[in-house]
Write a structure and sequence with these properties.
By secondary structure, the chain is mainly α. The protein has six helices and four strands; from the N terminus they run ααβααβαββα. The chain has a single domain, classed as Winged helix-like DNA-binding domain superfamily/Winged helix DNA-binding domain (Arc Repressor Mutant, subunit A, Orthogonal Bundle), CATH 1.10.10.10. Helix 3 packs across helix 4.
Length: 131
């Protein structure tokens, strides 16, 4: 048996009692993130870090980004309303131009040399918990 098939067999075996719990936890976190996105009003944004902190995971901004990257409904569950903490537009499944267009349609303005910074970032940034 090769090393890779040994690893594959180990990962697919029942010898990992935590795997079900980890999957449940992962699903719960994803659901919480997607529910938070639904609360961000049009014309407002949040940051990956702010969402992570609101979930009690203050060092998990990259995890939030990964979850948003996997969002199966990127316009319905508005991940385009999440930006990096520096006020730049950041990435989006359909490209940053589409993200910018969606945000502009919601009333968010941009500035900067490459026109990729949110204008008056702090004014359009929501804080958690939302009321």
């Amino acid at each position: 048996m090769t090393e890779s098939s040994n690893l594959s067999n180990h990962l697919n075996s029942s010898a990992l009692p935590l795997s079900t719990d980890l999957r449940r936890t992962s699903k719960r976190i994803k659901d919480e993130v997607y529910n938070m996105l639904l609360k961000i009003p049009a014309g407002k944004v949040s940051t990956y870090g702010d969402i992570a902190k609101a979930l009690g995971l203050p060092h998990a901004a990259r995890l939030i980004g990964q979850i948003l990257h996997e969002n199966p409904n990127p316009v319905v569950v508005p991940c385009h309303r999440v930006v990096p903490s520096d006020g730049k537009i950041g990435g989006y499944a359909y490209g940053s131009d589409k993200k910018r267009k969606l945000l502009e349609e919601e009333g968010v303005n941009f500035c900067g040399a490459s026109n990729t910074h949110l204008e008056e970032f702090q004014k359009c940034r929501v804080t958690w918990p939302l009321s």
